[in-house]
């Protein structure tokens, strides 16, 4: 019996358009498994919440909502919690002096947070401190995920899509609308499951010990105090002269004082553009009418406080030169990397060698280079390394220096040899006619 031939397929012309593949179906939306709980804002409600949390099992997923962009304070205006056997809870912390009963109910249970450095300060302000924690964002970085936002990780690992349309709302609003509360509850809906998946991957890649050191260090995290915070005013690069800088400083500090008193974000008093406009005017606008005529100096805040802004500008106009701020802020750190080749060619050579080795190390371990060691710590130890050049002694001293800067043991174990090799090699083969180093963190002017 003759074999049957397959049906003929008509030939496609060479210029035929390729068949377009259908776009993949979007992942299904993440939804609440249980009915949306009521917001707890009474002592009786808090007592019930604490009893439910205490009878649950396993880690506690926690998130907090602040009113960034609307309020001066960084306090929590809503706290979301979820625990196996307990369900999801929404807590308004504002009516309570502290949340000591909730701290006691959680006890030694592990907290699960996403981007812990954002929420830990405001939770500590409510009397809540973790005995142990797991940060899903930081763990994602250690695992080398290119994007570590909560929505991205949930879609990647759990296959559910999260909406983020309420991320910038004013959480100090009362009562909070139901769509906002649903959005907030979803932030902890699958955080326990996400933690378990990521924890298993940390173990599989041998990074679970590293992650634990990072999480333990995070427990004591406090937001850094910014020195000369007024220097972050947008448009400062256009300001010329120390008196103009003094104007920016004085107006920024007055605006900050008013914003703190009123508990509103400083930009709602006057925007940065108004401060920059006043500082760059041909002559300092020391009268209210002059200020109000400037571009950007408008709105109710500007109208209400214009006399006070004019008054501080009159004070700046009369200050002696010695009391005006310097153009370049004082720093206890090394100079910008672009200046290293001129000021210390050997140090510049150390940095070139170390950066190359750090990039290779980050690629080997599939994580961002800044998670191996903060760029500031690397620059500091390379600019002024320990004096010893005995390899063993130098390694011991480098480890001590890095530890003093807050580096964890796993980081010291990986990066210490890189620093030692860079120091010893640069001394043996100093860089000649070095190209200026580019500071990746240096701000760029508009």
Automatic annotation (TrEMBL):
InterPro entries per UniProt: 3'-5'_exonuclease_dom (IPR002562), Exo_C (IPR041605), HRDC-like_sf (IPR010997), HRDC_dom (IPR002121), HRDC_dom_sf (IPR044876), RNase_D-like (IPR051086), RNaseH-like_sf (IPR012337), RNaseH_sf (IPR036397)
Keyword Hydrolase part of the UniProt annotation: yes
CDD domains cross-referenced by the UniProt entry: RNaseD_exo
EC number: 3.1.13.5
Tree of life domain: Bacteria
Top-level class of the enzyme under EC nomenclature: hydrolase
Cited Gene3D superfamilies: HRDC domain, Ribonuclease H-like superfamily/Ribonuclease H
GO process annotations (BP): nucleobase-containing compound metabolic process
Record key words, sorted: Hydrolase
Name under which the protein is recorded: Ribonuclease D
Organism in which the protein naturally occurs: Nocardioides dokdonensis FR1436
The gene coding this protein: rnd
